[in-house]
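agent> Task received from the user: take the single chain below, predict its 3D structure, and emit structure tokens. No templates, no multimer pairing.
agent> Plan: (1) validate residues, (2) run structure prediction, (3) serialize to tokens, (4) report one or two observations.
agent> Step 1 OK, no nonstandard residues flagged.
tool_call: predict_structure(input=
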Amino acid sequence: RPGPHVMPRWTFALVAGDDDWNRFWAPTPQPRFHDLMAMVRFKTLRIEGDQAIFMSNLLYFKDLISQLGSQLHAR
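)
tool_result: status=success, residues=75
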């Protein structure tokens, strides 16, 4: 195929299924879906890439992702 081919850049990714994210963002999440690290522990969430950056800023990302869920329920 003719180029240019642009490769997307990323440092880490949080990978989970749609159903798992919906359970996480539920108004009252079930056990195992109440926290990002619980989801990692029970293998419903994968952290791909540079985990050190994610872990160094864990509280920021936990708050950020929780806010996304709050905005979903506000609609």
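agent> Step 4: summary for the user.
The longest helix spans residues 58-74.
agent> Done.
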